[in-house]
Amino acid sequence: MSYENNLRVALQEAKAGKDMSREAGAGVWANYVRSTCYPNTPDNVEELDKQHKRVVDELEQMKELSKEEKNSLRSAKSVIGKAITNNVDVWKRDEHGTIATEEGYPMPKGKSELQEAKSDYEKMVAYIDAAQKKYDSETREAFTTEQLSDLWSKLALLADAVYQAKQAQ
Description:
This protein has about 170 residues and is mainly alpha-helical. It is about 65% helix and about 0% strand.
C-alpha cells in the first residue's frame, strides 16, 4: 500500500476519532511526512508546496477531502515547512545516520519534537509576531484600560531586559 493510501486511511480514522498518531508511524502525521518527504526531503518550502499539492491531488482522486482533513494536512505541512526553513531533519536516524525504520516504514520525528527544535530566540520572535498579528486582527476583543496598562507594563519590562542585555554585550 502506498503512503498516500495509508494517509487516506489515517485521515478517515482520525475523522472517526480513531487517529493512530499516538502509535508510532501509523497516523496522519507519519504518513503525511512519508508522502511528502520520502525518499527525498524537499530542500525548501516551494518544493514542499509542490509535494503537498501532489499528495492532496492524489487524495482527492481517491475521495474528496473534507474541510477537517484539509486542515489536518495544512497543519502538518506548516510544521514540516518550519523544520525545512530552520534546516531541521524531519527523520529519526539510526546510529549510522540512515533513516530509522519500523516494520519497514521510514520513521519521521514527532510533530512536537520538530516544534521543540526551535531556539529560544526563534520561539520569542514567533510569540512576538503572533501577538502583533492578534493585536492587529479585526477579530480581537476590545481591551479594557487595565488590560492595556498590564500589556504595556509587560512589554516595557521585556523591552528593558532586551535593551540591558544588548548594552552589556
